[in-house]
Recover the amino acids of this structure.
C-alpha cells in the first residue's frame, strides 16, 4: 500500500511538472507585433510556429492592384503574414498600406522556426543620408559615388485607381451615350458584366474600342465666392466594345473603380499618367507667403455639394482646387494649404498642409494632400509652394 501510494504521488508530481512547463511555454511565447499609425498588427501564430514555403523568390515587382496582403498570400501562402514582408522592407516602405507599381519588394525566404531567425529589420534612413560604415553592399551600390549621397527615387503620391476614378470638374456638361440595360438583373454592375449602350453614330463604335464609364455627381460652387465652377464627374469603370450595330452597342466592363449604374455614360478612354515626384521640402510654418497663384480648396473626392463626406480632409485624400492650366498650374506642382483667423486678421496665417497637383483642367485641378498638420476644409486657402 505504501509503495503504491508513493508511485502515484511521484506520477502526480510529474504530471504537475509537465503542466507547469506547458503553462510556462504558453505564457512566455514571444508574440511579435508591428505598429503603424497607432494600430498594432499581430501574426496569426507565434513566430516559432511559422514555417514558410522553401521556394520563395528573393523579391517581387509591384504591379497595379498589389498590396502586402495579396503578396503574402501568393508567396507566403497566408495573407495574414504580410507584416513579415513589411519588416524586411522597412527602409523603403514606411506606410504598409502604400506600395506603388514598379517598386521592388523583398520577400522573407526559407523556413522560420524561431524568433531569433526572424529577418532583421533594416533601420529607416532619411533620403540623402551619408552611407554608414556598416552598410551592406546592395545599399552601397546604390550610392552616387560622386556625391556620396543616396540617389533620390521618384514615387507616385497616389494609386492608379484613385488617380483615374477621382475624375475632374468640367465647366460644361459632358454628354455621351448612356447605359440603357445589362445582361444581368443586378442593380450594381461590375467587372465582366455586359452592358448595352445606346448607339451614337458620331462615336463610330468598333469592337475592341475602350471607353471610360463616367457619372455626373453634382454641381460645384465655390465655397467662398459661391460662383459656379462646373460639374463634378467621376470615372466609374472601363469597358471594351464587344459588338455594335446602328441601334445598340454591347460592351464588357473590364475594370471597375466604383459600382456602375444604368444611366452612366461612356466617353472615349484616354491615358491618364500618374505624375511622379521626388517629394517637396519640409513645411515651414514660419516661411512668408509666396504670394504665387492664390486659390482655394473647393471640393473633395466622395464629397457632395459644398461639403466633404469625411468632414475634414487629411493626408492621402484627393481634393480639387480652383486653379488650372490657365493659371500656369501643371501636374507635379505643390500647393501650400493654409488658414487665416477671419475674426483676428492681425494673427499670422496657419499652415495646415500641402498638396501635389495630379490632374489639370483649364480652370481647376485635382490634388492629393501629401501632408496635413491639421484638418483641411473646403475653402482653405492655397498658393504655389516656394
Amino acid at each position: 500500500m505504501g509503495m503504491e501510494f508513493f508511485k502515484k504521488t511521484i506520477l502526480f508530481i510529474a504530471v504537475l511538472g509537465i503542466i507547469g512547463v506547458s503553462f510556462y511555454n504558453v505564457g512566455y511565447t514571444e508574440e511579435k507585433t508591428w505598429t503603424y499609425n497607432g494600430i498594432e498588427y499581430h501574426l496569426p501564430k507565434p513566430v516559432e510556429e511559422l514555417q514558410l514555403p522553401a521556394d520563395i523568390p528573393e523579391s517581387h515587382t509591384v504591379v497595379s492592384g498589389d498590396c502586402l496582403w495579396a503578396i503574402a498570400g501568393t508567396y507566403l501562402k497566408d495573407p495574414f503574414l504580410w507584416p513579415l514582408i513589411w519588416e524586411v522592407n522597412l527602409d523603403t516602405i514606411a506606410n504598409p498600406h502604400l506600395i506603388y507599381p514598379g517598386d521592388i519588394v523583398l520577400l522573407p525566404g526559407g523556413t522560420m522556426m524561431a524568433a531569433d531567425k526572424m529577418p532583421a529589420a533594416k533601420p529607416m534612413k532619411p533620403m540623402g543620408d551619408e552611407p554608414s560604415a556598416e552598410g551592406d553592399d546592395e545599399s552601397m551600390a546604390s550610392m552616387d559615388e560622386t556625391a556620396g549621397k543616396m540617389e533620390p527615387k521618384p514615387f507616385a503620391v497616389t494609386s492608379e485607381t484613385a488617380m483615374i476614378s477621382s475624375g475632374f470638374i468640367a465647366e460644361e456638361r459632358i454628354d455621351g451615350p448612356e447605359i440603357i440595360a445589362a445582361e444581368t438583373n443586378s442593380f450594381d454592375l461590375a467587372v465582366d458584366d455586359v452592358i448595352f449602350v445606346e448607339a451614337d453614330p458620331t462615336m463610330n463604335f468598333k469592337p475592341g474600342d475602350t471607353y471610360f464609364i463616367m457619372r455626373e455627381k453634382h454641381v460645384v460652387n465655390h465655397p467662398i465666392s459661391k460662383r459656379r465652377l462646373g460639374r463634378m464627374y467621376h470615372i466609374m469603370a472601363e469597358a471594351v466594345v464587344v459588338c455594335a450595330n446602328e441601334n445598340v452597342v454591347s460592351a464588357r466592363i473590364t475594370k471597375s473603380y466604383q459600382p456602375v449604374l444604368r444611366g452612366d455614360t461612356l466617353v472615349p478612354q484616354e491615358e491618364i499618367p500618374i505624375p511622379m515626384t521626388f517629394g517637396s521640402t519640409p513645411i515651414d510654418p514660419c516661411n512668408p507667403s509666396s504670394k504665387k497663384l492664390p486659390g482655394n480648396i473647393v471640393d473633395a473626392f466622395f464629397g457632395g455639394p459644398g461639403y466633404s463626406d469625411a468632414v475634414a480632409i487629411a493626408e492621402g485624400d484627393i481634393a480639387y482646387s480652383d486653379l488650372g492650366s490657365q493659371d500656369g498650374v501643371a501636374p507635379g506642382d505643390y500647393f501650400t494649404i493654409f488658414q487665416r483667423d477671419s475674426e483676428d486678421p492681425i494673427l499670422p496665417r496657419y499652415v495646415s498642409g500641402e498638396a501635389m497637383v495630379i490632374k489639370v483642367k483649364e480652370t481647376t485641378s485635382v490634388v492629393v494632400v501629401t501632408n496635413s498638420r491639421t484638418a483641411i476644409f473646403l475653402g482653405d486657402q492655397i498658393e504655389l509652394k516656394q
Q: What stands out?
A: The radius of gyration is 28 Å. The chain has a mean pLDDT of 78. The longest helix spans residues 2-27. Helices lie at 2-27, 68-75, 82-87, 137-141, 160-165.
